[in-house]
């Protein structure tokens, strides 16, 4: 239970503050970009929701993987603790090798569950990098075609200036950076969800009466 409580720390210290930044920073940049070029602001506005949407889709799978990982850790911890308590009995009955194999099997299950969590964490990072790169590339292509005269919209009657293009392209990575950072900390939310469910299950256990009348 102590390990699961610790898993919730990053959710409150990193993920929740980053959620506020992921909302505030893009809004501020949109307020600055739209008066300069509405087409670039529209690109930002349309592509920004793609990042959290796909992050949420990956995150649901990550939360399920973390839940299974916590259960495997609970079983491994309980099994190891029980074997430590009964070490003398195991040696008396010459069951050392057999229990070693059982413990090895439990640790192997935990290893596989941990690798599933890491695999999903890397997948979410790759998805975020892909969509942010595509969004910045679309903005760059728009300005490139505007400068060669193929596109003539998005400005307010004065044409697309060099200052507007450079200024918005410099702001483009900063627009998506809070969302990318949110994806970095999204695994903290997945871990917290798995930990919280285990804690809730523990707290929801019914109180049992002991034979001597005391409460457990």
UniProtKB/TrEMBL annotation:
Its main location: membrane. Residues 1-191 form the ABC transmembrane type-1 domain. Keywords: ATP-binding, Membrane, Nucleotide-binding, Transmembrane, Transmembrane helix. It is a multi-pass membrane protein. Signal peptide: none annotated. It is found in: Cell membrane. This is Transport ATP-binding protein CydD. One of its GO terms (cellular component) is plasma membrane. One of its GO terms (molecular function) is ATPase-coupled lipid transmembrane transporter activity. It comes from Vibrio maritimus. The chain crosses the membrane at residues 12-32, 38-58, 120-147, 153-172.
